[in-house]
Structures are given as C-alpha cells and as structure tokens.
Amino acid sequence: MTVHATQSSSEPLRLAGHEQTVFKTIFSPDSRQLATVSADMTVRLWDLDTRSELFRLRLPYEFNNQVPLWDFDFRCTPTGCWIAVPLTSGKLALYNLGKINYD
C-alpha cells in the first residue's frame, strides 16, 4: 500500500503487508498511525513515522460472511486505541489495542 502526502512533495510511504485489496483507511487524530482493513481479513495499525506495522488483527474465519469490511472504525484516546468491527449479525466486535507509546 502506498500513502501519498497531499501537503508536501515528500516521497510516498510504502507499507507492505496486506495480501489483498485495502478497503478502508483511518488516520489517528495525531496522524501518526494509520488503521487499514483489507479483503485478506486483516485489520492493521501502522506507525507512519517508522513505516512499521504496530498491530495486526486477523479476523476469525467465521467473520468472512458477517463483516462489511469497509465499515470498521478506529479511535485513540489518552487511555488507549480501539478498533470496532460491525457484524451483519447486528453484533459489534470491539478490540482494545492498548496504549501506544512512543519512545
């Protein structure tokens, strides 16, 4: 996946990992992380400063026919980061990523 900065002429960021089409991306409020969801049934959290993967969530096989992959949400607060994945069954899968610290 390639991320282009619209406010500068810097080189695009290349983030390697997803094996299929990326359906949705969400930046963290501070723009230091990027959450992505893909047809490969993974949700990934990226550190844009280091261009590294911070977290990978492989959705369980039984989610294959239940998850509208383009409709997930990602939020960070001072106490931690969360990914919410709505299921077509009407349930919500909520994953606590914990607090992301930078050294």
TrEMBL record:
The stretches annotated as WD repeats are 15-56
Q: Do you know which PROSITE patterns this protein is assigned to?
A: WD_REPEATS_1, WD_REPEATS_2, WD_REPEATS_REGION
TM regions (residue ranges):
none
User: What does the UniProt keyword field contain?
Assistant: Repeat, WD repeat
Protein name (record): Uncharacterized protein
User: Which Pfam families does this entry report, sorted A to Z?
Assistant: WD40
